[in-house]
UniProtKB/TrEMBL annotation:
Keywords: Hydrolase. This is MBL fold metallo-hydrolase. GO terms for molecular function: hydrolase activity. Pfam families: Lactamase_B (PF00753), WHD_BLACT (PF17778). Gene3D superfamilies: Ribonuclease Z/Hydroxyacylglutathione hydrolase-like, Winged helix-like DNA-binding domain superfamily/Winged helix DNA-binding domain. Residues 30-202 form the Metallo-beta-lactamase domain. InterPro entries: LACTB2_WH (IPR041516), Metallo-B-lactamas (IPR001279), RibonucZ/Hydroxyglut_hydro (IPR036866), Sec-metab_biosynth-thioest (IPR050662), WH-like_DNA-bd_sf (IPR036388). It comes from Sphingomonas oligophenolica. The lineage of its organism: Bacteria, Pseudomonadati, Pseudomonadota, Alphaproteobacteria, Sphingomonadales.
Length: 290
């Protein structure tokens, strides 16, 4: 992975500058990457956590230029909380993903919800925000979250992929807000595009995006087949499946693996291929139907 210094603006191309937030973790990699788009007037994509040092770094990168929009891909706490203080500092509206209210009281493996996130304008498929020499077009990409958006920059054929496609790891799909069938459909949707480069929320830029997306689809299909092979052998709970599927995994990432397996099982259950012996979710025993 390329070096990602925290708080230092790095110009990725004439219209795009990246500023890394100081929130590294097993789930965020080096941290959340905020992207500043434009030269004269700007958009700020995913201002990250509400960390005063990061907001200060963003304001320094903005350098007093007008901000047309603060653009949010989704409502996780490593992406959207910085929107409110940045909006107060710049006067820019918050646009993008819809607000979300979760009834999920189960364990969370990825970044938790930003309960205070309230956009001034929700963007739907094809909606745009624009400024001097740039346009950001919303692309609905549910899966990691139900309200996830990616944003295309048609002037340079770049795509800001948020957490849907990352440059360092596969994304967590954590039910009930995360949905494996929606995630796979969103990957197929991106496969049909011809974007030149992805700028993800975490990790290196993706210079061969279709190759990576094809690999992500294949990876998830392999995981599904692993689950089916194990269940054809005998009914199992998720903990037993994870122990066999993710040998040597960092223990801090086991909850994420369990949620991902649960997402696959929910998808397989919806397709009538597997079923649980109880309604206990992660604690239930799963089996092949028939």
């Amino acid at each position: 992975m390329a070096e990602h210094p925290t708080g230092i603006p790095i110009q990725l191309e004439p219209l795009v500058t990246r500023v890394l937030a100081p929130n590294p973790s097993p789930y965020t990699g080096t941290g959340t990457q905020t992207h500043v788009v434009g030269t004269t007037d700007l958009a700020v994509i995913d201002p990250g956590p509400g960390d005063p040092a990061h907001i200060g770094a963003l304001l320094a990168a903005i350098g007093g230029r007008p901000v047309s929009a603060i653009v949010i891909t989704h409502h996780h706490r490593d992406h959207s909380p910085g929107a409110r203080p940045l909006s107060l500092a710049t006067g820019a509206p918050i646009v993008g993903a819809a607000a979300f209210f979760s009834s999920d009281d189960g364990p969370r493996a990825d970044a938790s919800f930003d309960a205070d996130y309230r956009p001034d304008r929700v963007l739907a498929e094809g909606d745009t925000v624009s400024g001097g020499g740039w346009t950001l077009a919303a692309i609905t990409t549910p899966g990691h979250t139900s309200n996830h958006l990616a944003f295309a920059l048609p002037e340079t054929k770049a795509l800001f992929s948020g957490d849907h496609v990352m440059g360092w790891s596969t994304t967590v799909v954590s039910p009930p807000d995360g949905d494996m069938a929606a995630y796979m459909a969103s990957l197929e949707k991106l496969m049909a595009r011809d974007d030149r480069v992805y700028y993800p929320g975490h990790g290196d830029q993706v210079d061969r995006p279709q190759r990576l997306v094809r690999g992500l689809l294949g990876h998830r299909k392999q995981r599904e087949e692993q689950i089916l092979r194990l269940l054809r052998d005998a009914p199992r709970d998720i903990a037993a499946m994870v122990a066999q599927m993710y040998v040597g995994l960092d223990r801090r990432l086991i909850p994420a693996a369990e949620r991902s397996v649960l997402a696959h099982l929910y998808d397989l259950d919806h397709r009538g291929i597997v079923a649980a012996d109880s309604n206990e979710g992660l604690g239930g025993v799963w089996r092949i139907v028939g």
